[in-house]
Amino acid sequence: MQDIKIGNTIIGESHKPFIIAEMSGNHNQSLDKALSIIDAAAATGAHAIKLQTYTADSLTIDVSHNEFFISDPTSLWKGRNLYELYQEAHTPWNWHKALFDRAKEKGIICFSTPFDDAAVDLLESLGAPAYKIASFENNHLPLLKRVARTGKPVIMSTGISTLADIEIAVKTLKDNGCRDLVLLKCTSTYPATPENTNVVTIPHMAEMFNCHVGLSDHTLGIGVSVASVALGARVIEKHFTISRAEGGVDSAFSMEPQEFKMLVEETERAFLGLGKVTYGILEDEKKSLTFKRSIYIVEDMKAGDTFSSHNIRIIRPGLGMAPRYFETVLGKSVNKDVKKGTALTFDLIG
Fold it and tell me: Are the C-beta atoms of 87 and 113 separated by less than 8 Å?
């Protein structure tokens, strides 16, 4: 698989994970708060801040009956109608330039999830370096075609999708000009549990679609994200907020700055720890050889004395003969006088 470049950052098997902080609606309709979220995300070491570009009217209609009203008692948004929720969560379009400009100032990549053609047009005018397709939008084939035709890299989540759904979406993107694609394993529950995240799907997905794969992680904490890196994830997306206590539509499953900093650091450590298949003693380990055991003479001996379990032992440090020779040496004699504490070597055996 070829590497993918977004801004000055490269996504690839030999590159550390690309970490995306998802702002979503955690700005609570305050531009100052949104700008502060960008500042905080940049300070954690995140590579990108991601917005969502839509209006309530581009997603739904303003009614409150039946399926347009959230009645699920387990939902974070129980008791709301969809239109009101999207009005609260959307990022005003007239903020976008200020947000892109602040991200550039802070040295962090800014891109977005568009939800209709007009959103793509806006993001193109701002020079968006890539596009995200949300799980809920990956069956919106006209939108996928419009995004693919920009020629920009596409990162697409795969929550609430069958394998056939993903195949259709991927084919649509590729048939319309998408050459750089990342699929994100995603469980579309908020929050998700580790048990229903199934990150072992990641290498299978990478092989199935011959593309880079990452994780859109809605679990609490960083453990699932770290594990996903070991399985090949090279993009991690997590919701981000300055403070869960301040509320926000996604605040309950969003990470605060110190947690996000830990996510960036620990996913990089997991990546660096993968290395390559290797056996033997590393150059950096050689100094530690002295802490292994070897055979030492533990009593003063005269030339001609016989080695026994009383005068030689397997002890630290590891500068003498390897312990595997211990039984072979027993009964043989020393060829010169030696003092207690001498490492036994082959040239001492008569």
Answer: no
